[in-house]
Specification:
Layout: H1 11-18, H2 24-30, H3 34-43, E1 52-54, E2 60-62, H4 81-85, E3 91-93, E4 96-100, H5 102-115, E5 121-122, H6 130-144, H7 148-169, H8 171-176, H9 181-184, H10 186-198, H11 202-215, H12 229-249, H13 265-268, H14 275-279, E6 291-292, H15 303-316, E7 323-330, H16 332-339, H17 342-345, H18 351-355, H19 358-368, H20 374-379, H21 383-389, E8 392-396, H22 398-403, E9 410-416
Parallel strand pairs: 7-8
Antiparallel strand pairs: 1-2, 3-4, 5-6, 7-9
Helix pairs in contact: 3-11, 5-6, 5-12, 6-7, 6-10, 6-12, 7-10, 10-11, 10-12, 11-12, 15-19, 19-21
């Protein structure tokens, strides 16, 4: 079988079945019931949500009905918390022969998947989807022994919920409040994916999102000392998303307005947000198709400048010792994450510092003509790389700002002192 091409989604059939192609005017009327609308998409109205997924170029298989009717497991007054937190051990972690409880496997897989900073990125929402959502969905899929088609369907549902919440909140506003959107939005995507696999009904789904509201977290404080919590944020989003779905399945009650309520997500994390971006063409236009894979193991905001420097190096053929100055122009959002305080960014102390340092990433690219994971180990103590960092400046750039947030653009300018074969200097 040829490699599966899972992003070829049949939009018209979804629209015909579920009527998700809302207009902006329709959304205006729906703002007060966002949680129920999100449930409707996550649950697929007890039917197939994503009707067809192209499994190869010649043959597409229709996904069977993913929703399994559950009888009430426990009286709602006797919630089995043990089942939610101490499920049978039998889930797998990548590259590990041991078995783990589902929530533990989700935590480990999610944390490891995000650790190298190579995971997929949605530029405008400024978040990563696969690490928190696939990790949670894998655990749920093993619990239910579901097919690969069912797993992929659940992941796409989760991606859509996470990304659209990120779009609704706005990346800059979210960062300015000190939150890490991959994690804060990721838990809701994990709920959507795992809840779909577990077959939550309407009330259970709404409760699961409500429970997740109290679990949603992820502080950007790691930027100040290079700590490891950025990685664990994502694992915890996967773990807690799964737990929220199981708790709701067991009858645990959560707030009914997780997103639009007075203290809901959009009014607590992002000061109201733009609900139109969350709901417009939900189920018709798939933001999943706008996910991109990272070419370098660093913050995605650094990649445009890295690309620019690598192209300049190839075109001009400069040696890093010939660089007098390098100026990198960034959007405000990018500048606040990887560009300032400049003196600190020029002096990374550990890998996380390096991943979020524009001067350091630029120095590696300019010196080596490439950027791979092992460069951290080799460059953090390399005097030539660190000396080059001192010649790299960061500043706000109007052109980069104009492209933001749809694109994570940058402007790279290098000043070199070259001696040509004719002894002419340029």
């Amino acid at each position: 079988m040829k490699p599966l091409n899972w992003v070829e989604l049949t939009r018209q059939q979804i629209k015909a079945r579920h009527g998700f192609g809302w207009s902006i005017q329709g959304i205006e009327k729906q703002n007060k019931v966002i949680t129920k609308i999100v449930y409707r998409f996550s649950n697929g109205q007890r039917s197939t949500v994503i009707t067809d997924i192209e499994w190869n170029t010649n043959n597409s298989k229709k996904i069977q009905d993913l929703i399994i009717e559950f009888e009430t497991l426990m009286n709602e007054r006797h919630v089995d918390l043990k089942k939610a937190y101490e499920l049978i051990i039998g889930n797998k972690v990548f590259s590990d022969k041991n078995n783990y409880a589902p929530s533990a496997a989700a935590l480990i897989n999610g944390t490891l998947a995000h650790s190298l900073d190579f995971d997929d990125t949605h530029a405008e929402a400024s978040l990563h989807s696969s690490a928190p959502i696939l990790s949670a969905a894998l655990s749920a899929a093993q619990m239910k022994d579901c097919s690969g088609q069912q797993l992929i369907t659940a992941c796409v549902i989760g991606y859509e919920i996470q990304i659209r919440l990120g779009l609704a909140g706005g990346a800059s506003k979210h960062y300015n409040r000190g939150f890490h959107p991959t994690a804060t939005c990721g838990i809701f995507g994990a709920v959507a994916a795992t809840g779909h696999i577990l077959g939550l009904n309407k009330d259970q789904f709404i409760s699961a999102y409500g429970i997740a509201l109290s679990q949603s977290s992820g502080s950007m404080e790691f930027l100040n000392d290079g700590s490891w919590t950025k990685r664990s944020h994502v694992g915890q989003a996967a773990q807690n998303g799964l737990k929220c779905a199981v708790l709701a399945l067991e009858g645990f009650k959560g707030p009914q307005k997780a997103f639009e309520g007075k203290w809901g997500y959009l009014n607590s994390f992002v000061s109201g947000g733009d609900s139109k971006k969350a709901l417009n063409a939900l189920g018709e236009n798939f933001e999943t198709l706008n996910l991109g894979v990272k070419p370098y193991p660093s913050c995605r905001y650094s990649h445009a400048a890295i690309d620019g420097l690598l192209e300049l190096k190839e075109e001009i053929g400069f040696h890093f010792k010939e660089l007098e100055d390098v100026e990198i122009g960034l959007s405000n959002t990018a500048l606040n994450i990887i560009g300032v305080p400049l003196e600190e960014k020029r002096n990374p102390k550990n890998i996380v510092d390096g991943q979020f340092s524009m001067p350091f990433c630029a120095a590696i690219a300019a010196k080596n003509g490439s950027f791979v994971w092992d460069d951290y180990k080799n460059s953090l103590t390399d005097n030539e790389t660190l000396s080059l960092c001192k010649r790299i400046k960061t500043a706000h750039d109007k052109k980069a700002e104009e492209c933001c947030p749809a694109y994570m653009s940058a402007n790279a300018v290098s000043y070199t002192h070259l001696t040509l074969p004719t002894n002419r200097e340029v």
